[in-house]
Design a protein that fits this description.
The protein is α+β, with helices and mostly antiparallel strands. 27% of the residues lie in helices and 25% in strands. The chain starts with a helix and ends with a helix.
């Protein structure tokens, strides 16, 4: 699973440009499941289990990552851009980016040139530029076009006490977990969606879920862990190495209490750690999934992740198995109509 996570994180797939991710996933799962790509770009898979199900269950993870789109080229060769997905201004400053095979740096004024007022505030995001080393608009146009997308240039690194650092862990980790589940022996048939454009409005999940038409769904995600220095306990949201994160509410979903309780009990029964998300902001594909057709009973399981939507997302390896095992345990109960 970690090998797939590394390979997926090192691929580039900003929202609307998930083709490389889809190709990788299909190559991994094709021997184990029937799969196809729908018109929006979602990868839909059906895995045969030991027996048919009483209820149809969908596992979901999104393929896309946050990034940038080039909106203009200035006379001096610098590039203007907009964000695709939610990225804080402080995350962008002086970061390395890639536009295809072209490397660049997001410009930032050196501290020696800042006025006292400028030192007290961040620059306006709309005023930031990408420097690709070009000296003129004509030179830049030889390498970059308006509408090209840029991604953070970041390596996959294992470090410290079971930690992993990479871009796009949100939600390539979910994709890696789904691949691992597909490759395993399952007691019941299962459906899977690797979806597009989550970061810009949960778009792929809408069409994928409509196509599969499940009774239940399990969204596998990453969620913000703010367990860092000087953060009060009630503001940390969740912590690394404390297991899977289950939510009772977020910005797009009010989760069903019986499924929330089932997640907690499943973790206890299999001896895995689980933690409740201490916060209600944000959202994920569950928001689109649970509203599809006449409604889908949906739960979200997440891995705690520091520095989400940045080039340097950090997770703990020990939380990965927790998310996977609890998801499979919930699936078995859902498929057999025991929840």
């Amino acid at each position: 699973m970690l090998n797939n996570l590394k390979n997926l994180c090192l691929l580039d797939g900003v929202s609307g440009n998930e083709g490389k991710i889809a190709e990788y996933i299909i190559n991994e799962i094709a021997p184990y499941a029937e799969c196809y790509i729908d018109p929006l770009g979602n990868v839909i898979a059906h895995k045969k289990g030991a027996s048919s199900t009483k209820k149809r269950v969908l596992f979901d993870a999104h393929m896309d990552e946050v990034g940038l789109i080039i909106t203009g080229i200035k006379d001096n060769g610098m590039l203007t851009f907009s964000c695709i997905g939610g990225i804080n201004t402080e995350v962008l400053l002086a970061k390395r980016v890639k536009i295809g095979d072209v490397y660049g740096v997001i410009c930032v004024k050196p501290i020696h040139m800042l006025s006292d007022d400028e030192k007290k505030k961040l620059p306006e995001k709309d005023n930031l530029l990408i420097d690709i080393g070009a000296l003129s608009k004509a030179e830049a146009e030889e390498h970059v076009e308006i509408g090209d997308v840029a991604v953070f240039d970041s390596d996959y690194v294992e470090f410290g006490d079971n930690k992993i650092k990479a871009k796009a862990i949100d939600d390539r980790l979910g994709c890696a977990i789904l691949i691992d589940i597909i490759k395993s022996d399952l007691p019941f048939d299962a459906w899977f969606s690797f979806t597009v454009q989550e970061e810009v409005g949960l778009r792929g999940a809408k069409t994928a879920t409509f196509s599969v038409d499940p009774d239940f769904a399990i969204a596998i995600e990453s969620t913000t862990a703010c367990d860092i220095i000087d953060t009060p306990e009630n503001k940390s949201v969740c912590k690394l190495n404390e297991g899977a994160v289950v939510s009772f509410m977020d910005g797009s979903t009010l989760y069903e209490k019986s499924l929330f309780d089932a997640a907690i009990n499943t973790a206890k029964n299999i001896g895995n750690k689980i933690q409740v998300k201490r916060g209600t902001s944000g959202g994920n594909n569950a928001g689109a999934i649970h509203l599809t057709k006449s409604g889908v009973r949906t739960i979200s399981l997440s891995i705690p992740c520091r520095y989400l939507h940045s080039p340097e997302c950090v997770i703990d390896k020990r939380d990965i198995e927790s998310v996977r095992d609890i998801a499979v345990g919930l699936f078995e109960q859902m498929a057999d109509d025991r929840i």
